[in-house]
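EI: anyone free to look at a 408-residue chain?
SC: sure, send it
EI:
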Amino acid sequence: MIDFQNFDIADNERYKKYLRLCIQIPSNLSPFFVVSLRDELKFRRGYAANLCWHKFFLDGVKYWSPPAGDWDEINWRNVFAAHVPAGTKFHNVPEYLVNLWQRELGSSIEVAEHRDEWDYILHIERTEELSGSKLKTFRQGRNTFEKNYDYTVEEITPDIFDDMRAFQAAAEENLQQRVEKLDIAKSENKQFYFALNHWEELKNLFGFVVRVDGKIVAHSIDEQIDEAHSVGLFAKANYDFKGINQFNFWYDAKMNSDRGILTENIMDDVGEEHLRFFKEHLNPLVMLKKFFVTYKPATEEKSSAHGLNFSAQRDGERLTLKLSGRLNTDAANVIKGEILSALDVAHKVTFDLDGLEYISSAGLRIFVAALKKVRAQGGTMTLINVDEQVRGVLNMTGFAQIFNVEFR
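SC: here you go
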């Protein structure tokens, strides 16, 4: 069984190494989220089977969080048999991991949808540009604020923490009037103060404040998870200033873009009607679906693995890479270097995935690395002949809209 123990901020660096291997990173696995609620929810952490595990209490019920690590590399049947007690309840398990568990554990798990906890994933480039009719109202709101107010934007540093605390305290005074779920809002305020009190130790937090006439009217704080992803932890604005909320989200996207981040998880809406309306109208790239899972051991046969076939055809600056079979973790580790080397000087790259019936998180990371390399060379990359399983992975992670994909 797993040896769950107390932990502190210093252990976050170790935890992040496991988290960055996850193909989907839900907000409830954020290093900040876990450590800031450590005492309130009695979080405990353990390491076993190349995974990082957490358990906690919510409303008097004991839950486990989805484990962090390279999910595709795990023999889940053996891991559950060795480390997970029968009857264990998992809270907010992301869709990709649920699909893996359903394939490998079958009737040993029961799954229930948890819509109020689904995360909204923003495409940073789209949010920064605010182009198209779907983001028209946000574009208009930002323009209204920029036109009507003499404002400044300032990066968050410890020098302005006192001003931020004063702004937060003022916002708390009318908390009851602004939100439907007061207990959740008060918990978020505690987390906000935790962020300021431990800013230097947490290391991966960044953000800004907006001032009008020298006074803070909005702020935003994010957590950078890796080179491509962030989690939007806090965003607060004084609605007496027209368009401030839209300006705040736009500038947040700009700050993320400057860091090279591709997507931002702006967390869930906790079932609050007005918050859901607002986040849906941010035109999210994808919804990161999360589920309750209960482990009830059962017996089931496991399917065998398949190999991977790979070939490359070059015609000047045009390059076609053909992949078929199963791009699992082992295959990805073997083939990644060869694929990235083949991309040298290529400006029009096509991945022909006809016959590729499975892709793991390690395989998807190859496509991400390839896209970055091709873009750096001024080129384009397209995925063609994408099968159903691969299509599902691209859709649920949002990369179907970031990559240029031609589905069958």
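EI: The mean pLDDT is 90.
SC: 👍
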